[in-house]
Write a structure and sequence with these properties.
This protein is an all-alpha fold. The protein is built from 14 helices and two strands. It has helices at residues 17-28, 41-60, 62-66, 75-100, 106-114, 131-149, 158-186, 190-209, 221-226, 234-252, 267-270, 281-291, 295-308, 310-330; strands at 262-264, 273-275. Helix 2 (41-60) packs antiparallel against helix 4 (75-100), helix 4 (75-100) runs antiparallel to helix 7 (158-186) and helix 6 (131-149) runs antiparallel to helix 7. The longest helix is centred in the middle third of the chain and has 29 residues, at 158-186. It starts with 16 loop residues before the first helix and ends with a helix. The relative contact order is 0.11. Bound molecules: benzoyl coenzyme A (BYC). Benzoyl coenzyme A is lined by residues 49-50, 53-54, 57-58, 61, 88, 119, 121-122, 141-142, 145, 148, 209-213, 218-221, 224, 234, 288.
Length: 331
């Protein structure tokens, strides 16, 4: 994937044992790695993979919520949802720009996505069936995203870590607007509360899957932790998310759809935490491999938007070319 772009104009990769050792020393000393620095090919490849998947997730993530902009229950809700979806588009752009510093172009990444070859988060292949889903997505999906992304603000690669600082500020607002929708529904009529419970029932398990496979099955975690791209493992972050979210569900008066969920005082080195039931990894891999309920629709919607936006890209390029020609003529 992205083979021709892996070593960009500035990007140097080195593999000698002396270099790898020196590189690891820089990582261990918490130095940031910057685009023009030499780096191991695997470090560059891991970042392009992760940042690319992350960027695609933000862009595809606009679709399930975009579906409800025209049906938001009030003008205030509509304005907030519109702003949230726009934020996600912006996050995608920061992330494509961060990946470009590693020598892979946004066009290349977009082609991979549209061809169905690139991954994006499993969570966005589930349908949004009611307004309560917009609350549940903000609360749970953005909540999971924050848990995963705050540590990425300390990622060893400078451009990714800086992009994440801006993204996390906006994500925390998204989480709060989602929780506030849930709170309003839970304090409303019995029908509204039932809608909120139904949304929690459908989004709980897919939200836990967002953190990726269990550590023992995670192909990349060990190396990514060593390079300080990831600061916590998938299971550690999932556990933090569960422990933070269960009391929030209790406050709403909702029931987490897991009969095996139980407080375990011995967990987390004696600080306590929740044990949970088994995650359906068959479902996870089915969705990741393109067979979720909405995979086909999501890609079709992206392809349509890309085709319909062709004239904008062409006009922008023509304008840029004209400006360049004028500037050269003036020299
Ligand atoms: N969905 O070795 P592992 C958002 C793949 S945006 C699909 O643990 P890693 C938001 C993984 O890619 C949410 N695929 O991998 C946006 C790998 O496949 P490849 C996205 C998944 O990278 C709008 C394989 O499984 N957030 O929150 O060490 C609105 C083995 O996994 C998933 C990010 O992208 C999944 N859930 O850890 C609201 C954050 N999980 O590449 C919200 C940045 C795993 O070998 N990314 N896979 O073919 C990360 O932190 C890490 O990449 C992950 C996975 C924790 C996701």
């Amino acid at each position: 994937m992205y083979s021709q772009g892996l070593i960009g104009a500035d990007g140097r990769t080195e593999e000698s044992p002396e270099f790898l050792e020196a590189f690891q020393r820089r990582i261990d000393a918490e130095e940031k790695i910057e685009p023009k620095d030499p780096m191991p090919a695997g470090y560059r490849r891991t970042l392009v993979r992760q940042i690319g998947q992350h960027a695609h997730s933000e862009i595809v993530g606009m679709l399930p919520e975009g579906n409800w902009i025209t049906r938001a229950p009030t003008l205030k809700r509509k304005a907030a949802l519109l702003a949230k979806v726009q934020d996600e588009g912006g996050h995608g752009l920061y992330l494509y720009a961060a990946a470009e510093t590693l020598g892979v172009s946004r066009e290349e990444m977009t082609e991979e996505l549209l061809a169905g070859k690139a991954k994006y988060s499993s969570i966005f292949n589930y349908p949004t069936l009611s307004w309560a889903d917009i609350g549940a997505i903000g609360w749970l999906v953005d909540g999971a995203a924050i848990m995963n992304q705050i540590p990425l603000c300390r990622c060893s690669y400078g451009p990714y870590s800086r992009a994440m600082i801006r993204i996390c500020k906006e994500e925390s607002f998204h989480q709060r607007q989602g929780y506030e929708i849930m709170l309003t529904l839970c304090r409303g009529t019995p029908e509204q509360k039932a809608m909120a419970q139904d949304a929690l029932n459908r989004w709980w398990w897919p939200s836990l899957m967002m953190f990726g496979p269990h550590d023992k099955d995670s192909a990349h975690t060990e190396q990514s932790m060593k390079w300080k791209i990831k600061r916590f493992t998938n299971d550690q972050l999932r556990q933090k998310f569960i422990d933070a979210t269960v009391p929030q569900a209790e406050f709403l008066g909702l029931t987490i759809p897991d009969p095996e969920l139980r407080w375990n005082p011995d967990k987390n080195d004696g600080r306590g935490g929740y044990d949970h039931g088994p995650i359906d990894w068959d479902e996870f891999w089915r969705v990741v491999k393109g067979h979720g309920r909405m995979n086909r629709d999501r890609l079709a919607a992206r392809r349509k938007a890309h085709d319909e936006g062709a004239w904008v890209r062409e006009a922008a390029l023509a304008h840029a070319r004209k400006r360049k020609a004028r500037a050269m003529a003036a020299e």
